[in-house]
Amino acid sequence: MKITDVRTTVVGTPWRELTFVEVHTDDGRVGLGEARMLNKTDTLLACIAELSQRHLIGSDPFDLERLAWKVSWEEYGRVGEVTATTLAMLDMACHDLMGQELGVPIHRLLGGTMRERIPAYANGWYQGGRDPEQVAELAAAVVKRGYRGLKIDPFGAATAELSAAELRRAVDIVGAVRDTVGPDVSIMVEMHGRFTGATAARVARELTPLRPEWLEEPVPPHDVDGLRLVRAATEVPIATGERVHTVPEFRELISRGLVDIIQADLTHIGGFTGLRKLAGWAEAYNLLLAPHNVCGPVGTAANLHFATSTPGLKVLEHFNDFADPWVAGLVTDAPMVDAADGAFAVPTAPGLGLRLDHDACSEHPRTHVHFNLVREGWERRDTLAGARS
């Protein structure tokens, strides 16, 4: 089996663009991959075309370590977000081809079945503004759908600092959600790397009594010293890693004890090949993984295969029940959260187990959206928040 062609399709929504890649082989098989590239879709498409031609066409899809090595070493330049995402999409599609060839789901290639159900938490549900009562009503609807965890960024468009009034408002929002969902539902507080270390530490102290499941990305990814301040301010677990794109870049976070829950994104860290290496490292340090997942159905399916076989998995993020729920129709057999227990079933079909519906994709052309997390109203994930600056 040799790779003969690589084709891309982009689907647009009001706040994200989903890029799909299809890797074709000489025996007629098609492997599927996906990523959500924040604000750089054109750049991603160019990178896919260039690296596919140089390193993938004519190769055997089973030679994935060789592909990763070529992208990391033969390209010489530092592997960043776009390159790591390209590699991830190609790696995902090749794993799909491997599973199809062998007649087994991808998780059988990754170590088999570690768990029978994959717990999920909801994101993208808090689209009604920043009124505590309104947000609490939305949270109740999330729990009614079976989710036992939900994530929220209550900080509006804040950057660096937060006024006393805005801090009270954020605490009131989380407090209202806690009062509504009760003590047994997990609340993940998303901070989107908005703050200085001092501000993030102050926020952490105020939120600690509300018992968040974790504080996510309290400072920008590069601010290791700021993260240390947050660590000293609270016993709440710290989660981070969605904007770290290579395994070695986790070295300082892990070795200095500054992260409790690793949130690397399978689609931005080199695919299954990269994330599996990081999972082994996390296990050595007794850390858990909660993969960042802002993808549509293909990326979500890939994460389910990884989650099925990985011992250190905590929970999987899921947007597609609340933000753009129609994306499930872009593929056959899209994975769905079961309302009975807020979890996904283990995939059983060969490879990823789904195929792209090109007619459905054509109904949602590119939006060329600029998703801006420091624009007022961004949390609505609509055309206002997604408008170009």
From TrEMBL:
Gene3D superfamilies noted in UniProt: Enolase-like C-terminal domain (3.20.20.120), Enolase-like, N-terminal domain (3.30.390.10)
- InterPro entries named in the record: DgoD-like, Enolase-like_C_sf, Enolase-like_N, Enolase_C-like, Mandelate_racemase_C, Mandelate_racemase_N_dom
Keyword list (alphabetical) reads: Lyase
Q: Which Pfam families match?
A: MR_MLE_C, MR_MLE_N
Task: Tell me which residues make up the Mandelate racemase/muconate lactonizing enzyme C-terminal domain.
Answer: 132-237
Family annotation (SUPFAM superfamilies): Enolase C-terminal domain-like, Enolase N-terminal domain-like
Please identify the protein, giving its name as recorded: Mandelate racemase/muconate lactonizing enzyme family protein
Tell me the organism.
Jiangella aurantiaca
